[in-house]
Specification:
By secondary structure, the protein is α+β, with helices and mostly antiparallel strands. It has 2 domains: 6-46; 56-131, SH3 type barrels (Roll). The chain contains 2 helices and 6 strands. It has helices spanning 19-46, 49-53, and strands at 67-69, 75-77, 89-91, 96-104, 110-118, 121-128. The protein has a 4-stranded antiparallel beta sheet, with no helix packed on it. The chain has a two-stranded antiparallel sheet with strand order 2-3. The protein is globular, with a radius of gyration of 28 Å.
């Protein structure tokens, strides 16, 4: 019985397979599991990009000293730099928005992070650059 792997002897599923054949089978199985695990990890890592972006925990710096006044009937102030993020508020025309910096999101849209001063409060958030009168901050976060 030498030359046979002990896991494949006496009633095992693959009984009677030689050690070299068992080694090949194990190597193929291990390779398949590695590929499957890698693909699964990649899909899991990529999935939360937009959903996770809808919070204020974005890396940003207050490096832009510019302020503008919102225009139009409503400008959405969002918790993250994506249209998928539900707005905190739709700002009316004439609200002061202090720029901090801008970012390019994963779908290549540019957003400005800053603080809106309205109704006696300060609300931080993101505004899509085309919705700002001067096209938004030019200073990247």
């Amino acid at each position: 019985m030498s030359g046979y792997h002990p896991l494949f002897l006496k009633g095992g599923i693959l009984k009677g397979i030689s050690l070299s054949a068992a080694s090949i089978a194990v190597a193929v199985l291990a390779s398949a599991l590695t590929v499957t695990a890698s693909a699964s990890a990649s899909a899991t890592a990529a999935a939360p990009t937009r959903a996770a972006a809808c919070n204020l925990n974005h890396a940003h710096r207050d490096i832009d000293t510019k302020s503008v006044m919102t225009q139009g009937s409503s400008t959405a102030l969002r918790p993250g730099p994506y249209a998928d993020c539900t707005p905190y508020v739709s700002l009316p025309a004439g609200v002061v928005f202090d720029y901090h910096c801008s970012t390019v999101n994963s779908v290549k849209n540019v957003w400005t992070y800053g603080e809106a001063h309205y109704s006696g409060r300060i609300q931080p958030g993101w505004i899509y650059n085309p919705n700002l009168p001067d096209g938004g901050s030019k200073k990247l976060c």
